[in-house]
Design a protein that fits this description.
Layout lengths: L4 H16 L1 H4 L3 H32 L3 H5 L13 H5 L6 H29 L8 H10 L7 H11 L16 H12 L3 H9 L4 H12 L1 H17 L2 H6 L9 H21 L3 H48 L3
Helix pairs in contact: 3-15, 6-9, 6-12, 6-14, 9-15, 12-15, 14-15
């Protein structure tokens, strides 16, 4: 396709500009040295972040005897997927996985919905005692009753050994509400005013204007919530003492970590050769299971996070800075 006169003129101007300012585009030796150092540092940092996950993965798909001897460091050997198939024989692992998935999905969805609605609510000047309610919400970020009072509170509410203890305490997240509030305040007020003139209610404005425009910040807090729910094990450890069926996947991993330590102590204190052999075999089995469960625990977040990253980068900046 032939170029138009305007395109030719623009190309000519661009060529003349580059010729006039070509000294600005010349790469200096100091720039080359800086780039080499910069890329080297970030490459090493990337390798440092990725290697632990790679180490876990190659140890789960390698021969177990080589794993026990510590021969698997960079490249997998004796490839096998038997360790993942053996997870079917680990008691309560399936139910623990379902509990973690369900609490992550349900808890994150309710937290995002509550953060969006409350964040929008506290931006309204006509809200009853708006400043008092907002300050009271912020204060909860800095003051915590502690472990024992918190446990007693859950007991009185009947939430111990109850699945709802995973969901209800995390619905209202003050930090996320602040991010959403700041983001909503950056949305042009004229959009709401035009909707109110047309007779729209607050719920209509929230559903059709605020919610769609707030997707970047909502995706950001969804990442925060999902990672927090998925990685949480302390609430399961503290509040589910009598309900093993409600243990989370991270709690099961915590149990196997403790078992691995106990078996290591048993192996070191064993007297007879047969007892030492049995303890070492149990320790190896526990070690491989620990690696495999760790990999299964990490994979879902690793798969979801890259797809949410573009929302995270945009939302965290717009929600954190008011302007």
């Amino acid at each position: 396709m032939a170029k138009t006169a305007q395109e030719k003129l623009d190309a000519k101007r661009e060529k003349a500009y580059y010729k006039k300012h070509k000294h600005m585009y010349r790469i200096k030796p100091s720039d080359i040295v800086f780039n080499i150092i910069n890329y080297t540092i970030f490459t090493l940092f990337t390798i440092t972040c990725i290697y632990p996950f790679w180490y876990l993965f190659i140890n789960t798909i390698s021969d177990n005897e080589m794993v026990g001897r510590g021969e698997i460091n960079f490249i997998p050997k004796g490839l096998t997927i038997q360790n993942y198939l053996n997870l079917r024989n680990v008691s309560d692992l399936g139910s623990a996985f379902l509990v973690s998935v369900s609490r992550t999905i349900l808890g994150t969805a309710l937290m995002v919905l509550a953060s969006a609605f409350v964040g929008y609510l506290v931006t309204k000047q006509e809200m009853w005692h708006r400043s008092l309610c907002y300050r009271f919400l912020v204060i909860t970020m800095y003051f915590n009753a502690g472990l024992i009072p918190g446990y007693m509170n859950m007991v009185m509410l009947g939430l111990t050994n109850n699945y709802l203890v995973y969901i209800i305490p995390g619905i209202v997240a003050p930090y996320n509400i602040i991010l959403v509030k700041t983001y909503i305040e950056s949305i042009p007020a004229e959009l709401e005013e035009s909707a109110f003139i047309d007779g729209a209610s607050y719920m209509v404005v929230f559903r059709h204007i605020i919610w769609p425009l707030s997707k970047p910040i909502l995706a950001t807090i969804a990442i925060f919530g999902a990672v927090g729910h998925w990685n949480s094990f302390q609430d399961s450890l503290i509040y589910m003492a009598n309900s093993p069926k409600l243990y989370t996947l991270q709690h099961r991993l915590y149990v196997y970590l403790n078992q691995s330590s106990n078996l290591a102590a048993l192996a070191s204190s064993a007297q007879s050769a047969e007892a030492l052999k049995n303890a070492a075999a149990q320790q190896l089995n526990s070690k491989v299971i620990k690696y495999t469960i760790s990999m299964v625990s990490v994979l879902p977040i690793l798969c979801v996070y890259p797809f949410m990253m573009r929302y995270f980068e945009k939302g965290i900046m717009l929600g954190a800075v008011k302007g």
